[in-house]
Records
---
Amino acid sequence: MGRGKRLVWLALAGGAVALAAILAPPPEPMRVLDAPVAPKAFATTPAVPAAALPERETIGRARGEVFAQRSWAPPQPPAAKAAAVAPPPPPQAPAMPYRVAGKVVYEGGAHVVLAKGDQILWVREGETLGDGYRVDAITPDRVTLTYMPLGVAQYIAVASSLGDGAPQRNAPVAAARALPGARNAGPAQLRFDGPPQVSAGKPFNVALKVTSGQAVRASPLQLSFDAKLLEPVNVRAGGFFADGSFSYRVGPAGSIFVGASGKGAVPADAEFVVVTFRPIQAGSTAELKLSSLILQGAAGRAIVHDQPAAYRTAIVR
């Protein structure tokens, strides 16, 4: 087919399409429905039973704060929680093991006699005791001890009848009567036993002996002598305290402090303490005196005693 024929056919087809469009009826206008039209019922086929889905729980109300901090540690029992919260009790000092058995003044300073069980100690301010205590103050009415591991001060009352710190010379009977538990039994008898004459430079012994109707368990005492005439060489426990405890201290000004304790036997002219002296100056008379003594019986009970006469000896060449 030639080119001219194809153009003719295309022109005829376009004219036919235009004529059809002109002759077609106009479209109906759109109508607005006042009420929704129910959908037509469709024929249904019998439903095939399907597996039932599990019912899902609904989301409940939020409990607590969503972003709060939480501990993943296992819960503690109530007792453990209380123990963790309550602070531990503060450390306590042990019960005071000492009691005051006497008091004297030596070389211008106050000394106190402490008893711990059967042990007798002569102490003064600033001294440290073997079980952690330090003697910080000695006053007429009390003794202050500090328990050094904790720094806790403890106080021991001093009976006012023991004196105001003045030496208890020639007054042991009154001091013994004033202590708790003193009884009105017959007083114990004390005496010195030593040679009436000694040679200068040659040591000799002097013993303090006691006789009592009551058992004696402990005895703090103080002896005084002239340091220019006598030199103490040795101090030891007498036979009465041989199986007990014994301690002593010699002062340079002429004093001997003794603390002794035993089983609590009844002394019958028994040796309490024996002192060995060396005479120094010939042609003089040396003297030894009992300055202070407290006899203690059962449970620390005081035993009244007489004041022994001073011991005197002549020093010859």
---
Amino acid sequence: MGVTSSSGLDKSSRGRDVLLEMEHRRGHLRRNLRAALRSAIQEGRLAAGTRLPSSRRLAADLRVSRGVVTDAYDELAAECYLDTAPRQAPIVADVARAEPPMPEPARPRWTYDFIATTPDVDLFPRRAWLRACERALRSTPNDALDYGDHRGRIELRTALSEYLARVRGVRVEPGQMVITQGFTQALDLLCRALSARGSTTMAFETPSLADEWVTVRAAGLRTEPVPVDADGLRTDRLDELTADAIVVTPAHQFPTGAVMAPTRRAALVAWAARQGTFIVEDDYDAEFRYDRNAVGALQGLDPRRVIHVGTASKTLAPGIRLGWMSLPHELVDEVRSAKAAADSGSPALDQLALADLLTSGAYDRQVARARQVYRRRRDRLVAALTQALDNPRIDGTEAGLRGGHRLGHRCELLTALGVRVRSCHRLYQWRYIR
């Protein structure tokens, strides 16, 4: 209910009339009065220098005991909201005003969305995820909610090691896996672990996703470019590098869509073994191959040199923020320590829900469903272009989100539509076409 009248303020001070909104609820009077006064001070309704009523006067106005007011004054003085002196009513301290809230940027609504780094989140399996969360909550022991292994929940690491072996040909034991908050954190943790070993440089395919270069540089490493062509990474340029590690997308290069040729896969692995360097395999959307089964992960050729990184961002949704790394034995402890320092571990319940999707088969069903939707969309786009244009040139592997997400895109498709594309490596930033 409403509170002090304007007569509650000392007329000799430069105080202002103020209305303190507080609920007269037994057992909560002290807390409610303290919160009402704090809020009035923070919002500026009680200005700095205002002398408040004496505890006796305010207690009479509020019709509460004097002890309620005294305790509230004492606690606010301890929090530095009030200045007090013996046998004097407290004075409002000079408290910095909060900055005005910044308006939230409105998400643009595109007439045609050609972005290739995000799946169609409308396909997120809400019911399956809800059931998985419910099962995880019912069956999870209490200690799973405590601080645990910084590598992640063993249930998820076990389910992932089996899934990746079956679907991607990855050779990894659960103990060699670390759960992350997506690929960005995985790359950051690897950079920090490698930097602690004395590494200074990481190589990238070019063109590639610019955000990853920023992550590496923020971790203190330099970057080196390696060109790609229609067969993927130019392995004939590897001997020119001084890099201690290289990030590649062999199953489906971003943004060109090239699949690394078998001879180049072998050459890359041989170079890493010869130089003692690591290969970071970004296996970001290999599940979405439309013409045939995706080529197996590069990690299967040499688990000692290749670090396989995957996420649920493309198969489920980016907001899930769950990824994983399959590490060589020698890096496990260092990456686990980096993960512990970063955030003490990924959310346990989300990990258990994803483990449930994997073991129940719901994850496979979701991937199959999304693959079918994306394939249909890509086929419709290609058919429309073929019908509308005179012998359009449509290159690239039938794979990934570029061919199936909403409308899909490639440099060749945009060029065929009469859109000038200045640089393909920035293609993922083109979202709207009139």
